[in-house]
Amino acid sequence: MTRFFRLPVSPLIRALAALALFPLLWAAPAAAQTFDTKQKREIEQIIHDYLVENPEVLVKAFDELERRHEEAKLAETQAAVEKNRKAIYEDPDDYVAGNPKGDVTIVEFFDYQCGYCKRSFEPLMDFVEADGNIRLILKEFPILGPTSLEAAKAAIAAKRQGRYMEMHRALYEHKGGLDSDAIAKIAEELGLDVGKLKKDMADPAIQDQVSRTYRLAEQLNVDGTPAFIVGGVMYPGAADEERLDQMVKEARGS
User: Fold this and answer.
1) How much is the pLDDT for 83?
2) What does pLDDT average to over the chain?
3) CA torsion sign, 81 to 86 to 92 to 97?
4) Which residues are bridge partners to 236 per DSSP?
5) What are the DSSP E strand ranges found in the chain?
6) Which end of the chain, C or N, has fewer beta carbons within 10 A?
């Protein structure tokens, strides 16, 4: 999954050590207040020695902290999905593929330069076609710089010529790096009116559409691509046929 940033592990380890110290110091508040500096250092040393001799305790604590964090994040994300349902599922500017009346909706946040998005593209399209009852909402979420933004605008502008999906596929299947010339060449090879495409790409309405997706992603804590919402549940990271099948089965309750 392509992310904005990655959290370091060491601060979490230090936080766990602090959490291990906290109960001992405060189990008896009245007594804790009488500890002098020397006694506190001695307690810290005891804890340090115990953790060094029994590192599995810290590992278990870390695993439990991570589990609780993931549960809290999932609950927070599901609440955010419910709160932002209209922006997620009913934005009239989003391209909808698959079956518009499908019983399950898959929403994808993606970036054309994201390798994980490219890896997910064919499995996703094949799965949607094979299932026949999935509504697929595509949300351009260009996080990898100006070229990603330009590619997103080109795809959205191609929609005005009735060629969104062709442009979408061609941008993913392009070999080599994307730049302005490559994007223009792709459009030309697809038979698009390149002059009109460039004019439409400059339309503030297209930038506004992308900006709305940025704001929505922030509300949903989407920090990388690809990210999928299926059945109101967020699934970050690349998706192959097996993972997509599991997502949809869970959404259908089977």
Assistant:
1) 94
2) 87
3) positive
4) 227
5) 2-3, 95-98, 104-110, 134-140, 224-225, 227-230, 233-236
6) C
